[in-house]
Amino acid sequence: MPFPADSVGLVVPQLITFNEPLTLTCGRSLDRFELMVETYGTLNANASNAVLICHALSGHHHAAGFHAAEDAKPGWWDAYIGPGKPIDTTKFFVVSLNNIGGCHGSTGPASINAATGEPWGADFPPLRVRDWVQVQARLADRFGIHQWAAVVGGSLGGMQAMRWSLQMPERVRHCVVVASAMKLSAQNIAFNETARQAILSDPDFCDGFYLKHNKIPAKGLSVARMIGHITYLSDDGMGQKFGRELRSGSFQHGIDEPVEFQIESYLRYQGTSFSKIFDANTYILMTKALDYFDLAREYKDDAAEAFKQAQADFLVISFTSDWRFAPARSREIVNALLKADKNVTYGEIDSPYGHDAFLVAKQPRYEQLFKAYMQRISV
Amino acid sequence: MRLDHAIIDRWIKPGARVLDLGCGDGTLLQQLALSKKIRGYGLEIDSANIQRCAEKGLNVIEHNIDEGLHNFEDKSFDTVIMSQTLQTMYYPDKILAEMLRVGRECVVTFPNFGHYKARLQLLFKGRMPVSEFLPYEWYNTPNIHFCTLNDFEVMCQQLNMTVLDRLVVTRNEKLPLSKLLPNLLGETGIYRVTRP
Question: pTM value?
Answer without folding.
Answer: 0.95
